[in-house]
Amino acid sequence: MQKKKIILLVAILSVILSTILFYDKYFSASGFERITNGDRFIVWTVTTIIIIYYLKLDSDPQLAPLALSSDKEGSKKNNNKTDISFKNVAGLEEIKEELKETIDFINNSQKYTKMGAKIPKGILFYGPPGTGKTLLAKAVAGETNSTFLYASGSEFVEKYVGVGAKRVRSLFEKAKKDSPSIIFIDEIDAIGARRNLDSNNEKDQTLNQLLSEMDGFNTSETVVVIGATNRLDLLDEALLRPGRFDRHIYVGNPNINAREKILEVHTKNKPLHNNVSVKELANKTHGLSGAQLANIANEAAIIAVRNKKNKIDNKDFNQAIERVLAGLEIKNPSVLLKEKKTIAIHEAGHALVSKILKTDMVQKVSIVPRGQALGYVLKFPEEERYLYTQKELMGKITGLLAGRAAEQIIFKDITTGAKDDLTKATEIAQEMVCSYGMSTLGNISIDEYYIKNNYDIIRREIKKIMDKCFKNALKIVEDNKIILFQISDLLMKQETINNKELDKIFEEYKTKLDYAT
């Protein structure tokens, strides 16, 4: 603002001087005899430039006052009725049942107010990304025919102090005006993170405004705030208390029945071949989110079009699953023969140990490079699991370390190919030590503060688990080298092995499959 005033003052003085020189040009005045036409031209030019600069500065869209003026326009764009209902949401039956009370309260509020009940002011969806949190919020708005106001948490974060708080006020004013309405704040942790001494002043003001708005609803206005986050642990306690976000609903990855329903929704408008079994696809996609399942159905359709097919068959879906899980297939890889042999032994080690320990069902083994991986083993559990024993987790780590174990036994050396395996194995071991109480530290759960200040103790416990599992992997590979070579030779010959071909190799040798972990 100070800069703007200075430019304005200079512009006024320049205009006055230019006016005097213009008057002198046509009505000669004493005292200006030495001023030439060139001098006059320079003064007039400079004056014009200053005026243009001032006008441009005045209309600069980066200035805070004009940034604030765009709030109304943004609200108009967000003001819409959604046509999405619970019919469009598959596989979240328990959550839909929970939300029906809120929907009924909005649609038939009188019967609840007679009993003295109050509508929940806020619902917080939390869980991994891609599980349908935004879709659920839209469905609630659609079921109640409410105005749906969408906002991302990052929209309220500004470098200008007070802008975020003003946007929160504007959003709630709009919601109250168009009630009944649903305010959906996606990634709410961007503004609702826990306050501390290092907090940003603007963020704190924005959060304070959100807290006061959620606390100060008029009972005659039907406004429900729905928040979504992947990190519930980051949110401020004041935001989570009853009276603000009354209900916390976990939206996790779908189970096998939910996956089947989700795949049915995403394939109902697609021409499927008779060999496609949605139930089998649901079994193959363990641990995947709804967004990933939608992506698989779409990728399968794209692959079928690329191959000039009239219907999407099972092969297309299998390729789509690999595309989503392992990455893009590299058509012309420049992998040396020596490296290819190492990759074949590495992946054969994974397949061998996983098959013997029965940690997961091996679907496919491949040495075709995809994404950043030079080879991969697709594994899925034989049945839906929610609990794992200590032995089973040790078996998973052993299977992950088996690739490196095979390299060490066959080539007497190790490579960088185990980077991703080590990361996953360490994560499981850390969970065993810090979360599941499956170490010599005993039945305790260890928080982040303790880990940070006692890292050496935690590291030693993780190393004990990793060393034990690696030793077991070495023993299994050493005892079954002949099967390892059979798998790796077949991989070198045809690059991929499916579960039936793998079963055939094991049946030939009738190997003993009982190894202690």
Automatic annotation (TrEMBL):
Which cofactors go with this protein? Answer: Zn(2+)
Biological process, per Gene Ontology: protein catabolic process; proteolysis
* Entry keyword set: ATP-binding, Cell membrane, Hydrolase, Membrane, Metal-binding, Metalloprotease, Nucleotide-binding, Protease, Transmembrane, Transmembrane helix, Zinc
Chain sites annotated for binding Zn(2+): H346, H350, D421
Q: What class of enzyme is it?
A: hydrolase
Q: Which InterPro entries match?
A: AAA+_ATPase (IPR003593), AAA_lid_3 (IPR041569), ATPase_AAA_core (IPR003959), ATPase_AAA_CS (IPR003960), FtsH (IPR005936), P-loop_NTPase (IPR027417), Peptidase_M41 (IPR000642), Peptidase_M41-like (IPR037219)
Q: Where in the cell is it found?
A: Cell membrane; Membrane
EC numbers: 3.4.24.-
- What is this entry's stated membrane topology? Multi-pass membrane protein
- Every AAA+ ATPase domain range: 119-255
Q: Which residues bind ATP?
A: G127, P128, P129, G130, T131, G132, K133, T134
| Active site residues per record | E347
Q: Name one GO molecular function term.
A: ATP binding
Provide the family line: Belongs to the AAA ATPase family.
For this protein, the record's HAMAP family field holds: FtsH
State the oligomer form and interacting partners. Homohexamer.
Name under which the protein is recorded: ATP-dependent zinc metalloprotease FtsH
Its ancestry begins with:
Bacteria, Bacillati, Bacillota, Tissierellia, Tissierellales
